[in-house]
Amino acid sequence: MMQPQILLLKEGTDTSQGKPQLISNINACQSVVDAVRTTLGPRGMDKLIVDKKGKSTISNDGATIMKLLDIVHPAAKSLVDIAKSQDAEVGDGTTSVVLLAGEFLKQIKPYVEEGVHPRIIIKAVRRSLQLCLDKINELAIKINKANATEFHSLLQKCAATAMSSKLIHQQRDFFSKMVVDAVLHLDELLPLNMIGIKKVQGGALEDSVLVAGVAFKKTFSYAGFEMQPKVYNNCKIALLNIELELKAERDNAEIRVDNVKEYQKIVDAEWNILYQKLQKIHESGANVVLSKLPIGDVATQYFADRDMFCAGRVPEEDLKRTLKACGGAVMTTVHDLNDSVLGKCEYFEERQIGGERFNFFKGCPNAKTCTMILRGGAEQFLEETERSLHDAIMIVRRTIKNDAVVAGGGAIEMELSRMLRDYSRTIAGKEQLLIGAIAKALEIIPRQLCDNAGFDATNILNKLRQKHAQNHCWYGVDVNKEDISDNMEACVWEPAIVKVNALTAATEATCLILSVDETIKNQKSGDAPPAMGRGMGRPM
Amino acid sequence: MSLLFDEYGLPFIVVRDQEQKQRLKGVDAVKSHILAARNVANILKSSLGPKGLDKIMVNSDGEVTVTNDGATILKMMDVRHQVAKLLVELSQSQDDEVGDGTTSVVVLAGALLEQAEALLDKGIHPVRIADGFSMAAEICCRHLETISDEVEVSSERKTALVEVAMTALGSKIVSRCHRQIATIAVDAVLAGIKMADLERKDVDFELIKVEGKVGGKMEETTLVKGVVVDKGFSHPQMSKELKNAKIAILTCPFEPPKPKTKNTLSIKSVEDYEKLHNYERKTFEDMIGHVKKSGANIVCCQWGFDDEANHMLLQSSLHAIRWVGGSEMELVAIASGGRIVPRFEELTREKLGSAGIIREIQFGTTKDSMIFIESCANSRAVTIFVRGGNKMIVEEGKRSIHDALCVTRNLVKDNRIVYGGGSAEISCAIKINAEADKIATLEQYAIRVFGDALESVPIALSENSGFPAITTLANVKTLQISTNNPHLGIDCLKRGTYDMKEQRVIETLIGKQQQIMLATQVVKMILKIDDVIANEI
Lengths: 540, 537
Hints:
The complex is a heterodimer of chains A (540) and B (537).
Chain A: E1 14-17, H1 18-37, E2 46-50, E3 56-59, H2 62-69, H3 74-89, H4 94-114, H5 118-139, E4 141-142, H6 148-163, H7 172-185, E5 195-201, E6 209-211, E7 213-217, E8 231-240, E9 254-257, H8 260-283, E10 288-291, H9 297-305, E11 309-311, H10 316-326, E12 330-331, E13 343-353, E14 356-362, E15 370-376, H11 379-401, E16 404-407, H12 411-424, H13 430-442, H14 444-453, H15 457-469, E17 475-478, E18 483-486, E19 493-495, H16 496-514, E20 518-521
Parallel strand pairs in A: 5-15, 8-10, 8-12, 10-11
Antiparallel strand pairs in A: 1-20, 2-3, 4-16, 6-15, 7-14, 8-13, 13-14, 16-19, 17-18
Chain B: E1 4-5, E2 11-12, E3 21-25, H1 26-45, E4 55-58, E5 64-67, H2 70-77, H3 82-97, H4 102-122, H5 126-147, E6 149-150, H6 159-169, H7 178-193, H8 197-200, E7 208-214, E8 222-224, E9 227-229, E10 241-250, E11 262-265, H9 270-294, E12 298-301, H10 307-315, E13 319-321, H11 326-336, E14 340-341, E15 353-362, E16 369-376, E17 382-388, H12 391-413, E18 416-419, H13 423-436, H14 443-454, H15 456-464, H16 469-483, H17 500-503, E19 506-508, H18 509-528, E20 529-535
Helix pairs in contact in B: 1-4, 2-3, 3-4, 3-18, 4-14, 4-18, 5-13, 5-14, 5-18, 6-7, 6-12, 7-12, 13-14, 15-16
């Protein structure tokens, strides 16, 4: 007798389960980790990724690479997510977090194969995370904010470490100063969008400048613009959200006129509406008029006639930053335009930078904002510079908020590894082996640093283990001398929060992947597989 | 990308459309990039220097371009390879920043990569090579500063400016009359900065317009201290010349004004229709009345006007130009010192521009005519009017003038110069080789080959001039070392001396430094890539 077939899931659904599934997931993660492995550290390399439209991106930033890889494997996707979350939370260490998660899984894989229950593994991983976090908090060195110059140089060191693996690492002293100055310009909340980054192709990296104030590219202009003055001292700025153009006041309105006199009146009325607006602006005493909406040719010529400067279609964020820098308010009507809502700045000019013309607002009274103008050869180069600076800015912001640092270059990982190994020997049971495995996994950071630089990793690691066993807790890899050094003294510093976040995220991802034992993947709608086997009315 | 398999033989699909992606890893990736970049550099090599040759390019529409300008060649080549694209951008940014030296920068980058390949084979880590290169670039830029000379730049003493412009034009098709064109370019730039901008050293290229017209000889290229409008007077009966012109610059059309709001005018009777007709006529009269009252004798209008208005203008003996483009309007306004007027009602005497003479000139047997507005109140806005035998020459002439304008501007900004003909590169190469020995780490090798790469520019120069490249270079190099004179370079024009200072082959210091910095940057970026993931296109 034939058993009736029970169709539980839609045909074509991919299911796999049990231990093989777990192992398969781990392997998939490994292949993703391999893609970013070589980008770690000062000798890390970059990746060139070309998308479907032929746009190429060159990057060293883990999160960017993971995002562009367009990963579809369900388990491997969790690695992309942790890289993104690290990027969002601290901005730096995105490669390390992926690498750590991958290595945790790799070291645990033999135990899974031997049949240790995933729950036990998860418990051990969580336990070691807790131990690591306690250790970091205990070791981290608090910094003294009281001394401004010292604090400044400390922030610079953190920024320099974050930049050391990027394309711009030769100029890191230059940029780290710039980044720290930029962040210190901001108010208490350190809002990221108050640092504007503008890119202009051409020029050397060192030609990049930090403007304490606002700078933005010249907007589209109409005839008459060139006749406006381009320099002002002590100018007043009107920030508007009004369209200054001759246009239909209502889109859907229609006027019916039945005699010719009325016709002329309507034309005059339209002109008068615009002219009244312009006159109000002129009477308010503003020298510079910025508007988010277009400023038409009539208005441009009107302003030119009265020695005023105007720029229409200013991007919203630039307008906001101008508002922050110069004070005043963004007005949506001209009727209340008076001195109190006008922004002020000491110096305004339009200047050529490379092939572009830029508007500069300098000497602003409450400059809680600043603009970086980056220069560099190719477009991709500038984009990568921007990403690197973004990382550095995030690091500086984090350090200001959270003032504890640890030594980088694999030092803290080695110390945590030693601590976990010592601890594992004091406990009995399966956890001993598992915590030992985690301890080994942590060594991946210094190991990869060595591999990327072409050093003998085993040799360096042995030297490091020996130093850490003698309680020199800040010894890490010295990439320049192919040796080890005290990275606290060598000023390779990272905020403790980066490490805390990286370890937590990597652990979470590990636990997540370990706790999955079945994948049910719905077939993509649209491309049904060809009907198999069932041909000519015969059962399968 | 090849598929990966796990222990159980199941393939991983990690990345979307995995099979369709190409992947290149490690040293292979670096080497393939170097190959691509070198190919691009080799194409450009033959157009370097005064004896360099031009390229002809035909685009998909069958349009032909002949040029010697590196940036233009690369742009027209429509390169697909990602790394080659980087080189295109490199020469583009040199073009934006400096305007000249777009070929040399690519040749230099190609040579650097070629040298890097040899080091990679020796097993030196690409990042260390990149580090060495940027150290060397820094040494170079400092050295260039020490061998640079300062020249005096002012509107009276413009010899140096002209010489720089001449060097920039040396390799172009216009070299036949390059002194003339160089002088034109320099005068144009100086006219632009005459005003208060001299201390700001800001030259606005929007005020310098380059117009071209096919026909005539290249020697007939002129600098017009005013504006050239590619239009004729609106009515053929208007006289072709107008002295002491008072220009009304209008952005409103010569027609009854229309409201922007949607409208309908309903006409119910014949009288109404008559009224409308009279109204229209009256508006024309009013408009012309406004113009007359203000004292203008020529109207420059952004929009058109119909034949009726045209006729009325002629009757009231007003000249008119219609359909003038927005940017030209602006230039007319700047040059003549007038204001752009958006409404007839606002037209007053103060808002008129003035020009000494306005002429309509016809060319050869063609019916095309152009209007020259000259001897204006304010001579900041100038136009360079290029003539040439055919369209390609005129276009190339325009590009060459752009280069000349750029270098002149750079010299106005920073008045330091270095000498050309490869002399600066040779001098830097000698300096770098000396410095390399002082460096203890692995970067030493990279720095040393940087010097060799710099020599590729003089080598290409002498190759293109038909000299035995290596011998010539060796001669110059020994001479430089023995006489300690950094001004010795390749004598491409066979003037009988190696001394570029005597030959007056000069380039701007900024231009040279930019070349080296930009080339190094891009090379560093290419060397750092070890993994390429590309969708097959």
